[in-house]
Amino acid sequence: MPEPRQTRDIHQVASRLSKGGLAAIPTETVYGLAALATNDQAVDAVFVLKGRPSSNPLIVHLPDSSHVSDWAASVPPEAKRLMREFWPGPLTLVLPAHESVSRRITAGQSTVALRVPSHPVCAELLRTLGAALVAPSANRSNRISPTCEAHVALQFSGEDLLILEGGPCEVGLESTIVAVLPDQPPAILRPGVLTREQLGLRESPAFTSAKGEPVTVPGQHHRHYAPDSPAFWADEAALKQLGDRAEVAWIFCGDPRPVRGPSKDLGAEPGAYAQHLYATLYEMDALNPSEIRVIPPPRCEDWEAIHNRLSRLIRAG
């Protein structure tokens, strides 16, 4: 049976991608399942391997901002400002799609999501190819996003997948997505580590494209980023009731408490918490606990992205 294979050989990975194959690649956010963005068959293979619905658009990863005009029909001034200030980096811009862009990538929409990654290995790969890649998270659809090579190998056990080694992801959460379309105020469609204050933006809750279409972006399914083990919020009552049970796992936020089961404190700083959240979920899941209990982080803008991800994996009850 084939198994995923890891390599540091960027040219080997570039060769596979240029021939229409798939590869898992590191970015500063999470590992991505990459394919040439201009190869429709390769793009289709990404959807199939992930089990991703075709209604979920893909983000196009560019070597640098000079490639934007190949994909976007127009680039509003505010988008140019954001590109100057935050590219390369964990920022995705949703722009009007050029008519040549495959609607497989955009999920049939008239907008396209673009970003320039800052991870040095990913950046070198993109420069070597001289072409754009689609690279949704390298996991099965709705499962935990991978932040190291081992996570990818676990997700795609039994698959002939090449994994480009890049070490643990520095950011650990998917990129902030901002829509910048003509005659619309810029809007954050998915929060990330780049906050509204840092970006100089105010979120517009009722956002549509210039044609009045709702804009769909990755990561907005109600159930997403989920471990196999059921995860629930925790409070003082839960600690009192379940703290002495060895089969219950715990994730703390800067205030660890004595519990019998496995536990990890991700700290009270949102950047470090974000960086280690998915890796911690993988660790907890591997222990096969009866449930995972999560102490809620603070409710403020700096923690918005983390709450967004947690809200999609926490179950009611």
Question: What does this molecule look like?
Answer:
The protein has helices spanning 10-18, 40-50, 77-86, 103-106, 120-129, 149-155, 196-199, 236-242, 270-286, 304-311; strands at 5-7, 23-25, 32-36, 59-61, 91-96, 111-115, 133-134, 162-164, 176-179, 187-190, 231-233, 248-252, 263-265, 291-294. It has 317 residues and is α/β, with parallel strands linked by helices. The chain folds into two domains: 5-199, DHBP synthase; 231-311, no CATH class. Strands 1-8-2-3-7-4-6-5-9-10 form a ten-stranded mixed sheet, sandwiched between helices. A four-stranded parallel sheet has the order 11-14-12-13, with helices on one face. Strand 9 and strand 10 (187-190) form a beta hairpin. The longest helix has 17 residues, at 270-286. It is globular.
SSE order and pairing:
Layout: E1 5-7, H1 10-18, E2 23-25, E3 32-36, H2 40-50, E4 59-61, H3 77-86, E5 91-96, H4 103-106, E6 111-115, H5 120-129, E7 133-134, H6 149-155, E8 162-164, E9 176-179, E10 187-190, H7 196-199, E11 231-233, H8 236-242, E12 248-252, E13 263-265, H9 270-286, E14 291-294, H10 304-311
Parallel strand pairs: 1-8, 2-8, 4-6, 5-9, 11-14, 12-13, 12-14
Antiparallel strand pairs: 2-3, 3-7, 4-7, 5-6, 9-10
**Shape, please?**
globular
Helix content: 25-40%
Radius of gyration from the alpha-carbon trace, in angstroms:
19 Å
The name of the CATH topology of the largest domain is DHBP synthase
- The count of helical stretches stands at 10
Largest sheet, in brief, is:
10 strands, mixed
Structural class: alpha/beta
